[in-house]
Amino acid sequence: MIAVDVGGTETKAALVAGTGADVRAVRQRRRATTRDAEAVVDDVAALVEELRAGTADVEAVGLVVPGVVDEKNGIGVYSANLGWQDYPFVKQVEARTGLRTAFGHDVRAGGLAELRIGNARGLRDAVIMPIGTGIAAALVLDGRVYRGDGSVGEVGHVDVGHGDPCGCGQTGCVEARASSAAIARRYTERSGRPVTGAADVAALVRAGEEDAVAVWHEAVDALARGILLVAALLGPEAVVLGGGLALAGPLLVDPLRDRLDGLITFQRRPELRLAALGDEAGCLGAALLAIDMLEET
Amino acid sequence: MIAVDVGGTETKAALVAGTGADVRAVRQRRRATTRDAEAVVDDVAALVEELRAGTADVEAVGLVVPGVVDEKNGIGVYSANLGWQDYPFVKQVEARTGLRTAFGHDVRAGGLAELRIGNARGLRDAVIMPIGTGIAAALVLDGRVYRGDGSVGEVGHVDVGHGDPCGCGQTGCVEARASSAAIARRYTERSGRPVTGAADVAALVRAGEEDAVAVWHEAVDALARGILLVAALLGPEAVVLGGGLALAGPLLVDPLRDRLDGLITFQRRPELRLAALGDEAGCLGAALLAIDMLEET
C-alpha cells in the first residue's frame, strides 16, 4: 500500500504495511506541495514510483487531498489554496501508476486514522480537530466518520464574535485567531518580533512573555467558543485535538478546558484529548481508505 | 396505535391509523401539560383510555417528551420546563396502560415524521427546525435522524453575537431573539403594546408597523446566523422550518433566504423549506416510533 497526503504546504507519502490496528509506515517521503492539480498528480506518480521501488506487493494507492472532495467519484471538487476545480484525481493517478486508487479528504482521513488506530479509538460520537495552517474537523457520529456531501466540519469558519476578518471572507472565524498561522502572524503584529511559527509563540508563552500570552489567550478563547458550538449541535463525548498546535500539549489543553468550563451551561461537556498520530494521521488514513477499498472488492 | 406528544405547554394525543406514508390521526385530543413527571403519566394514561374506548386493535403507545431523553432505556433524563430528572416513563406508562410503549424526543420524532411523510421526504442530509416557544433541531444525517447521546441539535442555544441574555444562562442565543415567545416579548418591550403571540407580530409586520418590522428583522438575522453555523458544520442540503413561527410562510422564509445569502461565503447553501405537518409532527413521529417498535419485534 502506498499512501499520499497532499497537504496545503507539504505532501507526505509512505509505504504502509500491516492491517487493522497494526498499520504502520515502513518508508516515508516528504516534498513541498506544488500548486495545480496536474503538478500534484506528477508528484504523486513520482512518489509512488520511488516508494514502490524494490517492493513487489504494492496493490493500491490511498490518496487524500484538502478542500471539497467527492470521494465517491474520485474528484477534487474545489481547493482555493491549491487551485483546482472538479479534477478527476483517481482517474489520473490510476492511469499514471497502474494501481487502483482510493480517494478521500485529508481531515476526514486523519480522523478515520485516529478513530481506528489513534486516540479516538472506542469513541462513538467525537470531533477530531487538527489545528495547523487551517482548522477543520472530522465528525465521528455513531462510530463512523460523517462525510455528508463533502462540505462538513468547517469548525474553523464559524463566527465566534471577535470581529477580525478571515481569509474566507467572513469575520470572527475561529481560524482567524487560533490556527498556527494566525497565532504566529498575530504575535508578530502585536510584538513587532518575527517568529517561525506557533511553536515559537508557545515557547514564549512558557517563558511568560506578555505579548505571546495575550495572543495565546485569545486563540484559546476562540477555540473554546468553537468547541462550545459543536457541543450544542452535536454533543460529542470527546474533542480530539491534533495538528501542529496540539504538540503544545497541556499548554493548549489545560487553559482550553478551563475556558470551556467557564462557557458551557447545559451542553454535554466533551472530554478534551490530544491526538496520537501527529502529522502522519492523514497519510495513515489514506492507507486505511486503500485497505478498505481492497477489502470491499 | 396511540401517540402522545407531551409539549412544554400542551399535550397532543391521537389515535393513529395506517402505515408507511399513509399514517394519519383518526381521533385527536389536546390538553394543557401538567408539570411533574407523575402528573404527566396520569395525563398520558387518561388520554390513552379515552382514545382507545371502543377500539379493539390498539397495540402500542408512542410517547415523546421534551428535554434530554434516553430513548434506549425509556427514561426522561432531564426537563427544566417540566421538572423531571431520570424518570422511567416507559416503565410507568406500560404499567398504567398495559400497552407496549415506544419512547422518544419530541423534536427528533417530529423530524422523523417530516422525513418519512412530510416535507423532508427524500432528503439525505437535512436539518428540521421547529420554531415555537423554543428552538431546536432534528439532524438528518445519511438519511437517518441522528440521536447521539440525546443532547444534540440545540441550534436555539448557539451564540450568534447579539449579546442579549437567554434563559439558558448564556448570551446571544438564537432562541433569545427568534423563538415565537421572544418575538412576542420583544415586540411588547419595544412598543409597549401587548400581543398574544408571534402571529400577532407577523400580522403587524404585514401591515408595515415599524416596531414589529424591527423585531422581525432581528429575529430573521439571528435565525440566519444560526443556520449559517449549521451549514458550516454539517452542510445540509435543506433546512426545513416548522413550528408555530413557520406558519408565517414567505414572511419568514423570504427575508431569511436573503439574509442567509448575504452571510454565506463558501458553505453549502441549504434550500429553505417549510415543514408540512405543523404542530402534529411530534405526535405523528411518536406513532412512527411505535410502528417501528412493533415491526422490529
What does this entry look like structurally?
- The structure is a homodimer of 297-residue chains.
- The first copy, chain A, has 297 residues and is of the alpha/beta class.
- Chain A folds into two domains: 2-110 and 279-296, ATPase, nucleotide binding domain (Nucleotidyltransferase, domain 5, 2-Layer Sandwich); 123-275, Nucleotidyltransferase, domain 5 (2-Layer Sandwich).
- Helix content of chain A is 39%, strand content 22%.
- Chain A is built from nine helices and 13 strands.
- In chain A, the strands form three sheets. In chain A, strands 3-2-1-4-8 form a five-stranded mixed sheet, with helices on both faces. A five-stranded mixed sheet of chain A has the order 11-10-9-12-13, covered by helices on one side. In chain A, strands 5-6-7 form a three-stranded antiparallel sheet, with no helix packed on it.
- In chain A, a hairpin with a 4-residue loop joins strand 6 and strand 7.
- The longest helix of chain A is centred in the C-terminal third of the chain and has 25 residues, at 210-234.
- The model of chain A has no long low-confidence stretch (mean pLDDT 95).
- Chain A binds chain B through residues 80, 125, 139, 141-142, 146, 148-155, 157-161, 168-170, 172, 225, 228-230, 232-237, 263, 265-268, and chain B through 80, 125, 137, 139, 141-142, 146, 148-155, 157-161, 168-170, 172, 225, 228-230, 232-237, 263, 265-268.
